[in-house]
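Hey all, sorry for the wall of text incoming. These are the two entities for the joint prediction.
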Amino acid sequence: RKEVEQDPGPFNVPEGATVAFNCTYSNSASQSFFWYRQDCRKEPKLLMSVYSSGNEDGRFTAQLNRASQYISLLIRDSKLSDSATYLCVVNVNYGGSQGNLIFGKGTKLSVKP
Amino acid sequence: DGGITQSPKYLFRKEGQNVTLSCEQNLNHDAMYWYRQDPGQGLRLIYYSQIVNDFQKGDIAEGYSVSREKKESFPLTVTSAQKNPTAFYLCASSPGGRRQGTDTQYFGPGTRLTVL
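and here's what came out:
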């Protein structure tokens, strides 16, 4: 089983649409969760951390379900500028000596006018 | 401005040559990381360092070497032993430590290495 799995997409949506990405992770000991955004041929940039109670940042909402080992990202009122690849990222060793992140392969989003 | 810099942005190498990629950060972060990304693939960890003068192999360390003589710098050498070195190389840093949020990683702009 892959450590972090995402639907690769692409998700092609019109401007203003609501789109949801899902991610599953295999290690039940994971403690830190993130969504990163990566534009074509650029570096990944932190979009938001994901907290147990769920969290929202403007049009973006992240949810965590530890029992199902599932993370989601919801984008409301999507903009053309939201077009990118969204990476689900999990840390297995929070609080330990490593703090390494495991990256999903990403879900590609294309927002059309 | 605080941040992570990588140089060069593009690098071309002849087969059989070693090449060193630079990574510098002025964020006062303890931990630094090197990843490789191939088209359509996720990031794979090459080496990481939690503290100066110490580093550990990641998942794909063969054919690579690193040093961490200064907190700000974590250069990566791609040796001739790396069989398929053409890729996008990303350096990252994180605050390090055990408090929540200290494992969040921030990336440099990357170096695209092409072996001719």
